[in-house]
Write a structure and sequence with these properties.
globular, 70% helix, two-stranded antiparallel ribbon, mainly alpha, Farnesyl Diphosphate Synthase, single chain, 15 helices
């Protein structure tokens, strides 16, 4: 973890521990034939992962004085969606990956049918968490959280980006199309994390404009950093197979811009993201640190 400041290092460790603990509580292993399904869900959600989306959500919520336990529930909802997407992304019909977060992918550790069901069940769990009054006593706020995460997950968000990513194996995409693809596939959930933190903080939609700008730029910088890691990174640190985009012949930010231009663009995006927080003081330092970490991470 290169050049991570002490605040961010502490918060990364904290959010990883808290998310693992809450998933452990949310997913008790039943003493019946559902045991294999729940064990697969636990395999996908407990232990491993940077928890960037939960960190973005809790950091935004913290700026507005949201109760930590409430923010963590919403953070686990978005992480459940992210985990389900990775389970399905790793399937033989998608990327056919054998390792994720340094351990066997769910379909390898269990089987394909269990993996599909585990992804489906985590998708449902996300909205079950958000609809629960323990997340908020305000039904209108809960509905807004549900709507935000649903939009970011579906054809106007992550799933739409995924189908574009599949098309990228056979189609020649230009920079604008690659940018749109990544804004949906990767950026939508990152943006939803920030948006949901602000919703919990009762920030009006018009008051979230600068946070949306921050999240948009962080999302694109995150994907450029991912492309650089896929091209230059260490598989032992990444915990998954690298350089698969090159093998598949996909167009990426890296293939279109080259490594140096891509790295420069990511730096510009990080600085823009930080600039969107200019109206905030020290309470936004963690979000600033997250933006810098996006570029500096080594896995």
């Amino acid at each position: 973890m290169a050049a991570v400041d002490s605040l961010l290092k502490h918060e990364l460790i904290r959010i990883q521990r808290e998310v693992d603990s809450l998933f452990d509580a949310l997913l008790p292993v039943p003493l019946d034939f559902r045991v294999r399904l729940v064990e697969a869900m636990r395999h996908a959600t407990i232990g491993g992962g940077k928890r960037v989306r939960p960190l973005l959500l809790t950091a935004t919520a913290q700026m507005y004085g949201v109760d930590r336990e409430v923010a963590l529930r919403a953070a686990c909802a978005i992480e459940a969606i992210h985990a389900y997407s990775l389970i399905h992304d790793d399937l033989p019909c998608m990327d056919d990956d054998e390792f994720r977060h340094g351990k066997p992918t769910v379909h390898r550790a269990f089987d394909e049918a269990t993996a599909v069901l585990a992804g489906d069940a985590l998708h449902a769990l996300a909205f079950e968490i958000l609809a629960d009054p323990r997340t908020s006593g305000d039904p209108f706020l809960r509905a807004e959280l549900v709507g935000t995460l649903a939009s970011a997950s579906g054809f106007n968000g992550m799933a739409g980006g995924q189908i574009m990513d599949i098309a990228a194996q056979t189609a020649a995409f230009d920079l604008a199309t690659i940018t749109r693809l990544q804004q949906l596939k990767t950026g939508a959930l990152l943006s939803a994390a920030v948006e949901m933190g602000a919703i919990l903080g009762h920030v009006s939609p018009e008051g979230r404009t600068h946070l949306r700008g921050y999240a948009r730029d962080v999302g694109l910088a995150f994907q450029i950093a991912d492309d650089l890691l896929d091209h230059e990174g260490d598989e032992s640190k990444a915990g998954k197979a690298l350089r698969k985009d090159d093998t598949a012949g996909k167009q990426t930010f890296l293939t279109l811009l080259g490594a140096e231009r891509a790295r420069d663009q990511a730096r510009i995006l990080v600085e823009q993201a930080i600039g969107h927080l200019s109206q905030h003081g020290a309470e936004a330092d963690l979000l600033r640190s997250v933006a810098r970490f996006i570029l500096e991470r080594d896995h």
